[in-house]
Amino acid sequence: MAELRGYKELPIGAVPFRLSTDYKTGDWRALRPVVDHNKCVKCMLCWIYCPDMAVIWDGEKITINYDYCKGCGLCAHECPVKAITMEPEPTE
Amino acid sequence: MTEVVKTPKIPPEKQILMTINGDEAVAYAAKQSLVDVVAAYPITPQTIIVEKFSEFVANGEVHTEFVPVESEHSAMSACVGAAAAGARAFTATAANGLALMWEILYIAASLRLPIVLAVANRALSAPINIHNDHGDAYGMRDSGWIQIFVENVQEAYDTTIQAFKIAEDERVLLPVAVNLDGFFLSHTLENIRMLPDEEVHKFLGGYRKTYPKVKVDYFDEEVPLILNPARPLSFGPLDLYDYYYEHKMHQIEAMKRVPEVVREVNEKWYELTGRKYGDGILVPYGVEDADVVVTVLGSTGGTVRHIVKKLRSRGYKVGTIRIRLFRPFPHKELAELLKGVKVVGVMDRGISFGSYGPSFLDISTALYDLKERPLLVNYVYGLGGRDAQPEMIEKMFMELLEIAKTGEVKEKLRFLGVRE
Amino acid sequence: MPKQTLPQVPIKKGEPAYKLWIFEPGWKGELPLILNPRQLAEQKRPALLPGHRLCAGCAAPIIVKLASFAFRGPTIVVNATGCLEVATTIFPYTSWAVPWIHNAFENAASTGSGVEAAIKALKKTGRLPYEHVDVVIFGGDGGTFDIGFQALSGAAERGHDFLYILYDNEAYMNTGIQRSGGTPPFAWTTTSPVGKVIPGKQQAKKPIADIMVAHRIPYVATATPAHWLDLMKKVRKGIEVEGPAFIHALSPCDRGWRHGTELAIEIARRAVDTCYFPLWEWTPETGYMLTDRSLAIARNPSLKQPIEKFVEVQGRFKHLLKPENRELLKKFQEYVDLVWEDLLKRAANAPK
Ligand SMILES: Cc1ncc(C[n+]2csc(CCOP(=O)(O)OP(=O)(O)O)c2C)c(N)n1
Ligand code: SF4
Ligand code: SF4
Ligand code: SF4
Ligand SMILES: [Mg+2]
After folding, report:
1. A41-68 pLDDT per residue, tens
2. Atom of ligand 2 nearest to the CA of C262
3. N or C: which end of chain C has fewer CB within 10 A?
4. Are B263 and B355 found together in one domain?
5. Residue B179 sits in the same domain as residue B286
6. Span B73-99, mean pLDDT?
7. Structure confidence by residue, pLDDT tens digits, C123-153
8. CB-based contact A72 C262, cutoff 8 Å
9. Dihedral sign from CA coordinates of B408, B412, B417, B418
């Protein structure tokens, strides 16, 4: 975790001073979704349903933002053509 | 006691003379303070405030959104929402209603929302009682609110307006509770002088429209501390052991800055209206040469001063201090005034069961560091609206004078006016 | 991440997907309600940012994200205490791209009342730099059926202009799965455990949406995140009506319902297919109207699935599948049928 700030450096009213995009939930993952672009029919259901906003559509193809993806498997389960598979995290 | 200056900016003849009770005075003050949102629920002896305000709304005399909530819990909750959205918010309650607000009082203070709350002080249940004591106000003592006690209807009016000025001051940003004794003030007619509307508007700088700025990492510039679609902030996060303590320090620091602001506002009001209440914090009378001083909160202050005058005319060295600002508590200021006094009698219209009256605890703390400490006696009185009779108060002074002579306190905690 | 932008600016290639929602003072107009999935993905950014700490596979953020796609402009979000609130604002972080306030557990509706009243007062006095600012409230089942019900009922009666979205995960999840007025019969929770004598919750689920209908507010609906188009349309209607609107959204919870993290949408779909959680909307003018899949089932009852389909994938109901508990399952089915038949009688567009 980043260094903790003292009260003189904090905004009053206890309002959070950072966005959660700075907090990577990707390390919660046990399995990672992998998209087979040959199968994908670009229906966007995975984008619509992902609880972690981790499915990215760039106008051409679906990708997964592994910074945030928690590996729930919901996208794979909902993909109508089974274009997403849940695979073990690569071990370095 | 109200001190009067000779040449206020608005001379008395330009002020509006009204014969009204304390609740009405508070309602008029809130109206003149351009309150945006009033969320309130009826409870004796506060109800006249909401009724009066509803009349203003029904007659189109105010722009205020009146939210006739279904409970006091919701009254304070709505005030929190309104103040966070940038509105000037006001509510009023007493006793059980204040108790029901309790959870949200802490939240209002922690989120640094400048809400003003009028408390028509009333005894807490059970048994249920509608009359005055300070048990309700003492119950919110540690919630982070500024608490001011007034002595008369004029002061209730003046203080309600001042409360907005204090609450919204950037050095403060804390909610303020204005305490007026139930029935003794809330329902008692007095002649008071009110300012013309525009003068109150000027005093407060018009509508609430400037907001304190905060710096968060995700904006380059400082942004206003409100719910603002142009610069989104989140109010009321989950805060664990890594930051909660730091946030409490903000409140502790803000409380430290309150006395100077209360003093300033008291002075400004004096210049404007010709009225001031001591230094805004403490209202001493006859203390300079006194052997015996009695401290008191609220409307009993007048009765005690009356007795002090009487006894002084008979040659007794007695004095009194009315504590106007109860939170933050003026420990230093009191110690300064009570230095050299032989005996201090502390009157509390409430008790912390199993301990002493709450103001006694603070005064003991205030005096502890003096080289020569006065003797201290705590007088609990007036619970559930029991009248504070002048004879009773005179007897108390005689008792304290006797202690001053003998140097011996037999009972540190005394109960005035109760049958055995 | 770039700091300031309008939320609906088309996402160009290489541009970040997450941005704050910034409505500069004077902003006018309405964000479009986009129902085409591809356009949606190209033009909308959610008001909820990633990095939140709701459980993997939780349905609550899906509901919030879909709802935010239907926001029409400047919006202030109010949140009751619960999983959603706790996990999206763990100091020093916030996941909210729009102004957001959490006050306490039982007072989301009254806090929202205050926000709404403030908006009106600011507008009246020329201090609101927008044509309108919408108030959307999110509350859990505990914060809505139970402890926050008084505040909700009061706010509905007073007629404040807000949309209240109940995300119903059918128990107090944030405190560890205790039963609420929204917990269904026979469900296991930590305060309605399946014991030797008592098999889970013994009481029915409070008909909260019908109770809100009884308040005769301008708009009431049910929704699930699985039926995402239906949900978005309902959210937009709820925002557009003047006065209080209420949406009861079923929110599968893998931790509390004891199901796989991939199943939230599947279970929400089954809840509708079995008629455990019918989709409908209500206005004073139209009365009850079935929507989406529930309308299809009403027209073609053979589509209706047995309650086992809903129950079988959830650990909280696993005792119902034991042979000795067949009677309980039957009772559950009867309960579901009764509620469904009753709805069919009331729904103006159900075939009679
Ligand atoms: C007055 C009060 N009582 C109890 C709690 C403890 N509490 C916090 S969240 C919660 C449960 C929330 O349940 P629900 O509203 O269903 O939301 P969920 O967490 O399930 O999403 C409880 C009991 C509290 N915060 N405040
Ligand atoms: S596995 Fe879950 S979190 Fe990851 S991309 Fe798929 S739906 Fe999103
Ligand atoms: S759900 Fe499957 S087919 Fe649809 S966009 Fe995602 S990966 Fe492609
Ligand atoms: S406990 Fe349930 S509702 Fe709460 S975050 Fe986890 S899955 Fe979501
Ligand atoms: Mg819940």
Report:
1. 999 999 999 999 999 998 899 999 999 9
2. 2
3. C
4. no
5. no
6. 98
7. 999 999 999 999 999 999 999 999 999 999 9
8. yes
9. negative
For the segment C228-257, the average pLDDT, to the nearest whole number, is 98
Class of domain C37-346: alpha beta
Chain-wide mean pLDDT for chain C? Answer: 96
The pLDDT tens digits of the residues spanning B267-324 come to 999 999 999 999 999 999 999 999 999 999 999 999 999 999 999 999 999 999 999 9
Is the ipTM higher than 0.90? The answer is yes
Q: Are B180 and B292 contained in the same domain?
A: no
- Measure the CA–CA gap between A55 and A60, rounded to whole angstroms: 13
Decide if pLDDT at C3 tops 90: no
- Give the domain CATH number at B330: 3.40.50.920
The candidate with the shortest Cα–Cα distance to B22, out of B160, B117, B147, B175, is B160
Domain span at residue B372?
A: 282-415
Q: What is the pTM of this model?
A: 0.97
Residue A58 has a pLDDT of 87
Q: Which of B69, B209, B232 sits opposite C99 (nearest CB)?
A: B232
Q: Is residue B116 included in any domain, yes or no? A: yes
Specify whether B46 is located in the same domain as B146: yes
- Fold of the A24-88 domain: Alpha-Beta Plaits (3.30.70)
Pairing relation of β-strands C163-168 and C219-223?
A: unpaired
Domain ranges of chain A: 24-88
B-chain residues within 8 Å CB-CB of C19? Answer: none
Please check whether residue B249 lies inside any domain of the structure: no
For residue B146, tell me if it sits in a domain: yes
Q: Which ligand sits nearest to residue A80's alpha carbon?
A: 3
CB contacts under 8 A, B 186-215 vs C, are 207, 209
Interacting residues of C208 by C-beta distance below 8 A, sequence separation 6+: C141, C144, C145, C166, C168, C181, C182, C248
Inspect the interface and report whether the beta carbons of C49 and A20 lie closer than 8 Å: yes
Shared-domain flag, residues B326 and B263? no
Determine the distance separating the centroid of ligand 4 and the alpha carbon of B107, expressed in angstroms.
25
In CATH, what number is assigned to the domain containing residue B71? 3.40.50.970
Query: Is residue B402 a part of any domain in this protein?
Result: yes
Share of chain C above pLDDT 70, in %: 96
DSSP E strand stretches across chain C: 75-79, 93-94, 100-102, 134-140, 163-168, 219-223, 245-250, 280-283, 287-290
Strands C219-223 and C280-283: antiparallel
**Total number of domains constituting chain B:** 2
Specify the 3-state DSSP secondary structure of A63. strand
Mutate to test the interface with C, among A1, A21, A61, A85 (most CBs of C within 10 A): A21
Write out residues with Cβ below 6 Å of ligand 2.
A 33, 50, 52, 54-55, 64, 69-75
